[in-house]
Amino acid sequence: MDNLNLQQYFIDHNLKPTPQRLTIAKFLLSTDTHPTAEEIHKAISNELPTPISLATVYNSLEALVKVGIIKEVLTEPNKVRYDKNITNHHHFINTKTGEILDIEPYELISKELIENYLLKNPKQKFKVSNYHITFYGQVEENS
Amino acid sequence: MDNLNLQQYFIDHNLKPTPQRLTIAKFLLSTDTHPTAEEIHKAISNELPTPISLATVYNSLEALVKVGIIKEVLTEPNKVRYDKNITNHHHFINTKTGEILDIEPYELISKELIENYLLKNPKQKFKVSNYHITFYGQVEENS
DNA sequence: CTAATGTTTAGAATTATTCTAATATTAGAA
DNA sequence: TTCTAATATTAGAATAATTCTAAACATTAG
Fold it and tell me: Cβ A104–B121 below 8 Å, yes or no?
């Protein structure tokens, strides 16, 4: 999403396209990493004419989550990371480095399979609206 | 696991079976919920002759995680919940109530399926050692 | 231009957790 | 048993991440 579309997206979702929010959103959309609020704050602090406060980073992230442009990722205790969202997807955690990789949701499991699976659990009927898989393991780069 | 087996398990894992640790472990093994350290502290505080400190609850939980009797569950931002573990399993989060249900891992996805799936991601080779699914949705009790 | 509304800010407050260093308990040796 | 070394527990301080507060600022509608 480029700058102009981002502005439009904000307006369409009743969110004022302030420089702070735009900068944070642009930064997140430009990276494949999953930074914390602190990390975002550091990363963007020299991209704005005046320093941005950490509170604004938190406020903005909350707003961006609300309009569905980014997502929270919970992988470590007591730390929230943020992920440019748009699509639903899964995560692979490299157990050696802690790195988080996005995994696209090619049809891994069909909704039917999931609901049948959950039916084995005898006491309840589950209506699954969404699911998220965290894979743990190691990665070898292909040559 | 009963009291005696618990003691033995601790000893086998080089963990002194102190009253505090035993009480916390017994409490967790007796519930299907996924309480926080605070909640555990409250729940057990009158099961011991002298009051237990919150620091000990944290220390004990860390020790119990280390010996593999319980697991951390990360479902909400900035909150760690604990789960009697033993088996690998998944979680269903009731989006209405926030309740967390354990889902037994009947063979939902085979390891081969997972690794083939991840192969679609072109740049890397993944060695999956484990995976965890969080399902989100609603629950209807069966009559 | 002004009022109303919404946004950002610094710093205080809060929450969950970890650290510290003093005291108590434990398990094993004497 | 009693002693001792190692470990565990404790209260309270410290820290980390986040949220709150209330003042200042900016933007928009009239």
Answer: yes
